[in-house]
Amino acid sequence: MSQWAHKAAIFAALDRLEEHCPGQRGHAERVSVYAVATAERLAFSLDDLATVRDAALLHDLGKLAIESELLNGRGTLDREGLLMMKVHCDAFAWIADSLGLPSEILALGPIVVAHHERWDGTGYPMQLAGEAIPPAARVISVAEVFDAMVTGSWKPPMPEEETLAAIRELSGHAFEPAAVEAFFRVQPLIQPVAEPLAGPPRSMPRAARRWRASRPDSR
Ligand SMILES: [Fe+2]
Fold first, then answer.
1. Using CA atoms, how far apart are residues 58 and 97, in angstroms rounded to an integer?
2. From the CA of 185, how far away is ligand 1's center (Å)?
3. How many A from CA of 145 to the centre of ligand 1?
4. Which residues line ion ligand 1, judged by CB < 5 Å?
5. What pLDDT is stored for residue 192 in this prediction?
6. CA of 82 to the centre of ligand 1 (A)
7. Rounded to an integer, what distance in angstroms lies between the CA atom of residue 15 and that of residue 28?
8. Separation of 182 CA from ligand 1 center, angstroms?
9. CA atoms 80, 24, 154, 124: torsion sign
10. Where is the HD-GYP domain (predicted)?
11. Centroid of ligand 1 to alpha carbon of 67 (angstroms)
12. Structural domains for the chain
């Protein structure tokens, strides 16, 4: 499959997810940026970085298996709702298959399924612990929790500083310590995308104005 077709398949799947649960596409794209930067800091190979990118983009695709009322209701979930939500990890394989996604995307299954496992073995769905969790899932897990907390996917958004303190506290419990350290090195380098734009738009830089003025269609 060509690279173009590969990307088109991923973005078409994300479109479906966004339609079902608005906001998921932005979450997936931000998690992908954080996770790839973290993995790059951890010296993942180029092939593995591409795997992290794709798995991060599709980490919540299994939410297509969950009723949109449950996904879009904000606030605390009851026990039954929580159990249903957990299904989204395992659901990746059959959702990806039913969307006709290619085999190289189906091969992301073991990473996607493990994105809610915890370093101490108390996560789900398989209670994997430590190095039994695929390395790509360990970096996606940190990125996903950070983005969910700071943008307020379920609860009111948390200030960035508080969120970072919570991530630090979860190091060695929910998260691999090395993944947390790498995340802390790259996170300040990434422009916060969740914050609303404040004030009037910035003026166009001089070089951009010159380029714009030089275009024949600018008059
Ligand atoms: Fe998830």
1. 13
2. 24
3. 9
4. 60
5. 64
6. 12
7. 11
8. 21
9. positive
10. 2-199
11. 15
12. 3-218 (1.10.3210.10)
